Every structure is written in C-alpha cells, then in structure tokens.
User: Which sequence fits this backbone?
C-alpha cells in the first residue's frame, strides 16, 4: 500500500469516526461529511493516475458538484434550525415533532 492510499483511507476513516462519535453540534457533523467528500474526491482524482489511463474522467467533477450542493443544503439547514431552535445542538432536534 502506497502512502497515497494510506493517507486517503486514514482521512476517510478519521472523518467517519468523527461523524460517529462527535455529534453534539450540527456544524461538526457537516464538517465531517465535507471531509469525507473531500477525501473521496482526492481518491477519485488520483485513480486515473494510479491506473495509468489517458482519458480524463468526469466522475471527480460530478462528485465535487454534488459536494458543493450538499454543503449549501447543509448550511441552509443549519441557519434554519438555528433560527427555529436557538442553537445547533443535535439533541434539541426532535424528528417526531413537526
């Protein structure tokens, strides 16, 4: 395993562990999701170099587009939940109450 693979797997694993264990604030959950998407983008961008293909692949650009949409949606939810509930603590949100 090369150091590139090790750093990619370590970044994805650390961000998923952060998402699993540090879920007190919505902003920390969103940051963990963004770091997961960034590590997947780096992995998809390095994949043609590792396989030595000459054709460019559109998949990393498509994933970066979806990541930007996810970030915008997450920040909109953060602002809306902070305005309605007063904070971004995840334990304040009740999914059963509309």
Assistant:
């Amino acid at each position: 395993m090369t150091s590139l693979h090790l750093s990619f797997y370590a970044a994805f694993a650390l961000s998923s562990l952060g998402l699993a264990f540090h879920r007190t604030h919505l902003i920390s959950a969103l940051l963990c999701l963004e770091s997961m998407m960034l590590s997947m983008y780096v992995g998809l961008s390095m994949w043609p170099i590792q396989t030595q293909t000459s054709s460019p692949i559109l998949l990393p650009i498509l994933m970066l587009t979806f990541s930007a949409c996810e970030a915008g949606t997450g920040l909109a939810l953060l602002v809306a939940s902070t305005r309605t509930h007063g904070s971004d603590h995840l334990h304040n949100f009740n999914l059963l109450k509309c």
